[in-house]
Specification:
- The protein is of the alpha+beta class and 152 residues long.
- The chain has a single domain, classed as Sufe protein. Chain: A, CATH 3.90.1010.
- Helix content is 41%, strand content 19%.
- Strands 3-2-1-4 form a four-stranded mixed beta sheet, covered by helices on one side.
- Helix 2 packs parallel to helix 4 and helix 3 runs antiparallel to helix 4.
Length: 152
């Protein structure tokens, strides 16, 4: 394993063992639920928007290492961003994990997920929180599942 792969693995393990922003947020924020029926990952995402800016974002749920690390890193990457910026980051992240772009696409720590493209079943794990984020930003009430989502 090369040095960069080891660093990426350490970052994923750190966010899996010590997820950031894992907490329920107070009433009044947007909330969406996501579920991956293939592996059982579940996430509830809370987004506090103020004039289109994400003031805070947190989550509750359980899942595999990839899913947990992804939602943990998502929460840190999006605070202070506009809803439009968050959607752009998701599009770039999605392109990265599905192999449409290579690492080095200016996603910072999120590039740790570039290796997921080698394991297509894990792409849904990595993107579950991001699809759930879109539902929260759009204030959709229907839970998100990865069942009908094309992550290729």
């Amino acid at each position: 394993m090369n040095e960069l792969s080891e660093l990426y693995q350490e970052l994923i393990l750190d966010h899996t063992r010590n997820p950031r922003n894992r907490r329920k947020m107070a009433a009044g924020c947007r909330k969406a639920e996501g579920y991956n029926p293939l592996c059982g990952d579940r996430v509830t995402l809370y987004v506090d928007l103020d004039n289109g800016i994400i003031r805070d974002v947190s989550f509750e749920g359980s899942g595999c290492a990839i899913s947990t690390a992804s939602v943990s890193l998502l929460t840190g990457a999006l605070k202070g961003k506009s809803a439009a910026e968050a959607k752009k980051i998701f599009a770039d992240f999605h392109d990265l994990v599905t192999g449409k772009v290579e690492a080095g696409c200016d996603l910072g720590k999120l590039e740790v997920f570039s290796g997921v493209r080698e394991f297509p079943m894990r792409v849904k794990c990595a993107t579950l929180a991001w699809h759930t984020l879109n539902a929260a930003l759009e204030n959709r009430e229907t839970p998100v599942t990865t069942e009908g989502v094309e992550d290729k």
